[in-house]
Specification:
Strand order of the largest sheet: 1-2-3-4-5-6-7-8
Distance between the termini: 50 Å
Order of helices and strands: HEHEHHEHEHEHHEHEEHH
CATH topology: TIM Barrel
CATH superfamily: Phosphoenolpyruvate-binding domains
Structural class: alpha/beta
CATH architecture: Alpha-Beta Barrel
Bound molecules: 3-methyl-2-oxobutanoic acid
């Protein structure tokens, strides 16, 4: 069902209406102009300039090393490509935790220098002061709970979060706090489907899941993962829509062969 496919520009209000009318929200990550142009043309609702750029674009083991300048570079590239989607930009590790004034100036830099439409921040009640300050500047904020990769050294592992009652209750309280603060949506990453469904029912704003089951208001995947570019990442929640790893390997191999054999370029490929 795509009630809102004729919407010329997706806004936070459109996403809220989608939730209220039962239309699922589609979201993918994007980090560069060329890929973002294809994703937007396909009709995606939200493009997340994720700090997963640290992993898939820069090859870091975690999302922690990516800087504010680098996030702004990726986001500006995506914004130049996009006509319809809402562009949400991850605030990188170290740009908002613990100091709400620094959080506001980081968010303002993202909005001014990239042209993005909203920011995303990992955490619950512990970052509420930063969220409040950013919201006072009129910058829409998307929350992110459950497995929050910027805290990987606290968790120690990327396993499913909030399986125990205590952590599940804390997550629900955090989701309510984010909603009360004025966040326009929340990403729930890698938590039990029943818990995510409960949050989506109890919370009025859209809940977007990744590894959180089908009972939420929308889904997000990392674009390199769903295209099968990295053949070493195969979590249970990931559906691969292509095997680009094999296709690209084949294409690069054919090119190398053609160059070595002198088959490329032929007469019609020269001036
Ligand atoms: O950075 C990212 O790609 C994300 C998604 C996994 C939600 O935060």
């Amino acid at each position: 069902m795509s009630v809102h496919k004729d919407v010329k520009k997706v806004t936070t209000h459109v996403l809220q209406t989608m939730k209220e009318e039962g239309e699922k929200i589609s979201m993918l990550t994007g980090y560069d102009f060329s890929m973002a142009k294809i994703i937007d043309t396909a009709g995606i609702d939200v493009i997340l300039v994720g700090d997963s750029a640290s992993n898939v674009m820069a090859g870091h083991e975690t999302t922690l090393p990516i800087t504010l300048d680098q996030m702004i570079y990726h986001a500006a590239s995506v914004v130049r490509a996009v006509q319809r989607a809402l562009v949400v930009v991850d605030m990188p590790f170290g740009s908002y935790q613990g100091n709400s004034k620094e959080a506001l100036s980081s968010a303002i830099r993202i909005m001014k220098e990239s042209g993005g439409h909203a920011v995303k921040m990992e955490g619950g009640q512990e970052i509420i002061e930063s969220i409040n300050r950013i919201l006072t500047a009129g910058i829409p904020v998307m929350g992110h709970l459950g497995l929050t990769p910027q805290s990987i050294y606290k968790f120690g592992t990327y396993v499913v979060r909030a399986k125990e009652e205590e952590e599940a209750e804390r997550l629900i309280a955090d989701a309510k706090a984010l909603e009360a603060a004025g966040c326009f949506a929340i990403v729930l990453e890698k938590i039990p489907a029943d818990l995510a469904t409960r949050v989506a029912k109890e919370i009025r704003i859209p809940i977007i899941g990744i590894g959180a089951g089908g009972g939420v208001d929308g889904q997000v995947l990392v674009v390199h993962d769903m295209l099968g570019i990295n053949n070493e990442f195969n979590p249970r929640f990931l559906r691969k829509y292509h095997n680009l790893y094999q296709e690209m390997l084949g294409a690069f191999g054919n090119y190398i062969e053609d160059v070595k054999s002198g088959d490329f370029p032929n007469k019609s490929e020269q001036y």
